[in-house]
């Protein structure tokens, strides 16, 4: 196995893990809600488990973004990746802050949801230049298209004030990252180091 293939698979594995863990966190909250409409938690343990999955998923998304397209995605692609990395880092921070404050105070801090909103917004904004940079670098079509679809899902989740649209947008975001990761994992030949590389 060549080094570039190994790195491409690591990036793909991180993308799949990100999508699956983020999906599981949101889906678990729908199947077994642990929070009242006013924000009161009915199960701190359940909420903590959901946020652990979320935090691990967001961290995996950071790893996947670090591996996408380095270094030949051009200036716009690098800017898009930087914006997206900042967004994924804020999603990770949301999980950490929400988990910590929920365990200490019995409910997540209200301001932690600002980290979520800004993080998702940055991922939406960054998805377009990142996808264009990936396309120009020769990344497989399923990868750069999936990045665009993830951005669209994030936009739906941000713009929808009520469920089920908010959750459906998040599910689309998550599924798109799984698709991107699977495409990288199934690459039939070595993935060029400048297309998929873990930093």
Query: Largest sheet, if any?
Result: none
The residue fraction in helices comes out at over 70%
Helix tally? 6
Principal-axis shape equals elongated
Give a count of the beta strands, DSSP E runs of length 2 or more. 0
Which parts are unreliable, with pLDDT below 50 for 5 consecutive residues or more?
190-199
Over the alpha carbons, how many angstroms does the gyration radius reach? 17 Å
Mean pLDDT: 86
N-to-C CA distance: 19 Å
In percent terms, what proportion of residues is strand?
under 5%
Which secondary-structure class do the elements indicate? mainly alpha
- How many distinct folded domains? 1
How are helices and strands ordered from N to C? HHHHHH
Any overview of this molecule?
The chain has 199 residues and is mainly α. The protein has one domain (3-185). It has helices spanning 3-31, 44-67, 74-105, 112-137, 141-159, 165-185. Helix 5 runs antiparallel to helix 6. It starts with a helix and ends in a 14-residue tail after the last helix. The model is unreliable at 190-199 (pLDDT under 50).
């Amino acid at each position: 196995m060549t080094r570039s293939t190994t790195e491409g698979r690591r990036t793909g594995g991180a993308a799949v893990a990100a999508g699956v863990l983020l999906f599981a966190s949101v889906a678990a909250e729908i199947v077994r809600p642990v929070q009242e409409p006013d924000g009161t938690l009915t199960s701190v343990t359940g909420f903590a488990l959901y946020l652990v999955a979320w935090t691990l998923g967001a961290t995996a998304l950071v790893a996947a973004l670090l591996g996408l397209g380095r270094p030949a995605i051009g200036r716009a692609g690098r800017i898009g990746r930087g914006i997206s990395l900042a967004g994924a880092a804020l999603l990770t921070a949301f999980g950490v802050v929400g988990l910590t404050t929920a365990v200490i105070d019995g409910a997540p801090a209200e301001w932690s949801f600002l980290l979520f909103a800004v993080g998702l917004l940055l991922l939406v904004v960054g998805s377009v230049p990142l996808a264009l940079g990936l396309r120009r670098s020769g990344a497989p079509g399923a990868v750069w298209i999936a990045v665009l679809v993830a951005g669209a899902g994030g936009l739906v989740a941000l713009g929808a004030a009520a469920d089920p649209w908010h959750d459906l947008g998040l599910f689309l975001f998550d599924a798109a990252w799984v698709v991107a990761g699977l495409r990288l994992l199934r690459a039939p030949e070595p993935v060029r180091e400048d297309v998929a590389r873990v930093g």
